[in-house]
Amino acid sequence: MTGDYIESPLHHMHNIFFDLDGTLHKEDIFLAFILFLAKKRILNTLVFLPLLLQAGTLHLFFANGKLGINLALFCLTFGMNPARQQQLIAEFSQHFQLTPFANVREKLQQHLANRQRIFLISGSPAELIKPFYSALLANDNVQLISSQFTHRAYAMWLRDRCYAENKAIMLDRRFTPRITFEIGYSDSLSDKAILDRCQQAILID
User: Fold this and answer.
1) Which of 88, 134, 150, 172 gets the most CB atoms within 10 Å of its CB?
2) Among candidates 204, 171, 170, 172, which has minimal Cα distance to 187?
3) What's the pTM value of the predicted model, to 2 decimals?
4) Which ranges of 62-133 would DSSP assign to H, the alpha helix?
């Protein structure tokens, strides 16, 4: 479930954190979508190639920010209206396939069976995640905190980037009092801000 700021009595529940990309499944959904755009919007890719190279450099040096990502998105989606944006997201979702990590998925189902509250906190945008995890997100005990797309200036942009320290910031923006976790699952130490709130942190190889 998603929503705005929530005053939540979760202190009496067992909260479990799961990262998505590299944890519940092998692929990086957001990176795959950007590569999909580069192939699908080949004219934009060719016209804006010098700026795309700069975007890659910016992202390399400022990996925690969204400047490089937004420059790449602008180059690849400039001239696109919101309807076309939704069409491309739908097309990507229909053709892209995830490779699930069965053992981690099994752990998630065990936590749900025990009536534990699951927090999926991901750097991939919600608009890309929901088509792949619609059944899971329909569960009242599952919350999604993620990056968010917006549309302005004839292009797609990243409004919020849920990555590194910003994962904890976005979590606190949504829930009060401060959420802590019994167990956290992630493949990356970039999630340290969330893993520090976990009684037990499990790194996925």
Assistant:
1) 88
2) 204
3) 0.91
4) 67-77, 82-95, 102-113, 126-129
Q: List, edge to edge, every strand of the sheet that includes 117-125.
A: 155-160, 142-152, 117-125, 15-18, 181-186, 198-203
Give every CB contact of residue 33 below 8 A, 6+ residues apart in sequence.
89, 92, 96, 128
| The Cα angle at residue 98 between residues 135 and 154, in degrees rounded to 5 | 85
Helices (H), 121-180: 126-129, 134-137, 165-174
Reported as type and span, the H/E element at residue 122 is: strand 117-125
For 151-205, write each residue's pLDDT tens digit.
999 999 999 999 999 999 999 999 989 999 999 999 999 999 999 999 999 999 8
For the purposes of burial, counting CB atoms within 10 Å of the CB of 110, is it exposed (0-12), middle (13-18) or buried (19 or more)? exposed
Given a cut of 50, the residues of the chain with pLDDT beneath it are 1-12
Confidence (pLDDT) at 13: 64
Judged by DSSP in three states, 127 sits in: helix
- Nearest-angstrom CA–CA distance, 162 and 147: 5
